Amino acid sequence: MSHSEEKDISLELKLNKLSLNENEVPVDKNEIPLSDLPVELTNRIALDCEMVGVGSKGLEHMLARVSIVNERGEVLVDCYVKPQKPVRDYRTKISGIRPEHIADGTDFKIIRELVRKVIHGRILVGHALKNDLMVLNLRHPKYNIRDTARYKPIAKKARSFGTPSLKSIAQRFLGEDIQDGEHDSVEDARAAMKIYLIFAKDWENSPHVRSKV
After folding, report:
1. Where does the Exonuclease domain lie (predicted)?
2. Domains of the chain
3. What whole-number distance in Å separates Cα of residue 62 and Cα of residue 76?
4. Helices and strands (DSSP H and E) totals, the chain
């Protein structure tokens, strides 16, 4: 069995656990069973998305894969998403996305609603989360966002003069080499969570966060 086939089977099993039918939107959106998630839904979760290019030149972003892990790095959600528009550029060298991954992916409306419910009321960790939330067409309260690309102490300790890349801070703080070629949204979400946890104590006691508590 190939690696891609193993991933497809794994994703199918996860969706089955969530009791979601990829061919239709639930009649009552409130009935998406979060209690059936495969692992514990902790108060702190990390999100990462992979995107493909759409539009006349393939420069517009469209969601192709979404991954969410809990604070222990356990996978809550990991799904390929059915294209909403014709794909002009799969960006495979970076995204790792191939046509067969998303051809039978889950409907965007189902994924969006699932993600909305999973992240609601929780601390959302990630790297450059603005991009992920944009392709999901979702918002999240700023006081509950922990973006490793925007937290200044991370950039300072990484000796970055601009916005640090996830790859660079994963190497700096975790000693891990990620994004070596094709990206993996589960790996990236886990890296963001681990970096957040290193800084969590000071981060959670920062004026920006405490003023909203």
Report:
1. 43-205
2. 3-210 (3.30.420.10)
3. 21
4. 9, 5
